[in-house]
Write a structure and sequence with these properties.
Strands 1, 2, 3, 4 and 5 form a 5-stranded antiparallel β-sheet that branches. The chain has a two-stranded antiparallel ribbon with strand order 6-7. It has 4 helices and 7 strands. Strand 6 and strand 7 (about 130-135) form a beta hairpin. By secondary structure, it is of the alpha+beta class. It has a single domain (about 1-150), classed as 7,8-Dihydro-6-hydroxymethylpterin-pyrophosphokinase HPPK (Alpha-Beta Plaits, 2-Layer Sandwich). Keywords: ATP-binding, Folate biosynthesis, Kinase, Nucleotide-binding, Transferase. Pathway: Cofactor biosynthesis; tetrahydrofolate biosynthesis; 2-amino-4-hydroxy-6-hydroxymethyl-7,8-dihydropteridine diphosphate from 7,8-dihydroneopterin triphosphate: step 4/4. GO terms for molecular function: 2-amino-4-hydroxy-6-hydroxymethyldihydropteridine diphosphokinase activity; ATP binding; kinase activity. This is 2-amino-4-hydroxy-6-hydroxymethyldihydropteridine diphosphokinase.
Length: about 160
């Protein structure tokens, strides 16, 4: 329960672009190494990248999906604000994953020290070759739904009928 009780501190960072501030929801997961510490360090790294943490969920231990012969995951989610554009945010998250030992050419759904996914980016719907927001499978994943529910009951993201 350390993650719930630890305070996330906002840091003043300069915007990397003229993009307006957006509220985002990011899911975090880890099933290798010191999982709780990796998730805490990822939150700190996000803040250094201009992703200002507003709220965080508690940690959830969950079974792996698809490839089940691997360790259980610790999962969490954060709500943050950022002036990063969606592609800049994705790049920042991928860089943080790599800094924490993730091999992006590894097995899909395989073990990983850190996994960071953009679940919501404001009320925007994005569908490009590299990014789909809202995350296309978040509603099918209890390991995302439970932490996101911790953040706020009013965090609904874009409506599905738009």
């Amino acid at each position: 329960d350390y993650f719930r009780n630890s305070a996330a501190r906002s840091m003043n960072t300069e915007a990397s672009s003229d993009h307006r501030t957006e509220e985002v929801v990011i899911a975090l997961g880890s099933n290798q190494g010191d999982q709780a510490n990796l998730l805490r360090n990822a939150v700190r790294a996000m803040q250094r990248e201009g992703i200002n943490i507003l709220r965080h969920s508690c940690l959830y231990e969950t079974a792996p999906m698809h490839v089940t012969d691997q360790p259980r995951f610790l999962n969490a989610a954060v709500t943050a604000t950022t002036t990063l554009t969606p592609p800049e945010l994705l790049k920042a998250l991928k860089n943080i994953e790599e800094e924490h030992g993730r091999q992006l050419d590894g097995q899909r759904w395989g073990p990983r020290p850190l996994d960071l996914d953009i679940i919501f980016y404001g009320q925007q719907k994005i569908n490009t070759e590299t990014l789909e927001v809202p995350h296309p499978r978040y509603q099918d994943r209890e390991f995302v739904i439970a932490p996101v529910s911790d953040l706020a009951d009013d965090q609904a993201g874009p409506s599905s009928d738009e």
